[in-house]
Amino acid sequence: MLSNFNRWLQDSVFKPLEDKKMPVMEHLVELQVRLTRAVIITAVVFAATFFYADVLVKWLRIPLQNMFVPSSLSWEPTDLPTVPFVFLAPAEALWQNVKVAGLFAIVLATPYLLYEVWRFVVPGLHAQERRFVGPFVCLSALAFFGGVSFSFFFVLPFALNFLISYGVSSGFIPQLSIAQYVGFALWFLLVFGLVFEVPLVITLMAKLGWVDAPFLRRYRKWALLGAFIIAAILTPTPDPFNQCLMALPMYVLYEVGIVSAGLFNKKNSMSAAEALVPAVATAGAGGGASGISMPKSPDDEYIGVPSGGRRR
Prior knowledge:
Layout: H1 2-14, H2 24-51, H3 53-60, E1 66-69, E2 74-77, E3 85-86, H4 92-121, H5 127-169, E4 176-177, H6 178-195, H7 198-207, H8 213-218, H9 220-234, H10 240-286
Parallel strand pairs: 3-4
Antiparallel strand pairs: 1-2
């Protein structure tokens, strides 16, 4: 059944997309057409998200004074006092709505954008590469959305609750700029979406033969140090608390990547062994007692030289 499905996929989906050896200018025209379609679709989605920008900002404010409870799948209010939002420039509130609407528009239009990229790239790929690129792109999108969801429901509420409660316990009155809060929240969501791509990146590197599981295990300490350095650069605030919140999941995902690379390398080695067995069997069938037939050269026709004689 799997072979029939692969045959149908190759004949019905991949073959119509075969590269027809178009000139460079035709490729550029096709690229322009696909970019134009992507921009138009994103603009249409942006018009819809900007209409609901106030609602999206309210949803973005949920992690500030609420904690998500997985057991009941609901938000529970924290003990923090009410935190008012202020804007420090005349157009600050408007631009934050534009920023939030633009980000959500790109996220919602991502499936169509990936489809346009796929239609432009797939004619230049081999059949084996197409079978790999499609699932890899889908898994990348799922991993990104998983990272954004993990940050929104767990990391962001925990970080905001700790930081705001620390300031309140120090005697300060919390008043947040809408620009600072939106930038902090969106940056956290974006970075965690990218962090969840680490296992897929490691798997891709293992497929290309750049790394393997023993190599990754050997550099665990450096990976942990690199996770903290990257987190120190990417966190929107310089405090070590947020750095740990970002570095520790990054290192855990590195360990997941090691497991994935190990399974992938094992699968490749098994495939190579299965490919080697028929070759050895074929050689054994055509060979002599040793099972290996060597090509004969003109010098191999000479058997030996009798003692005391000359070669004839």
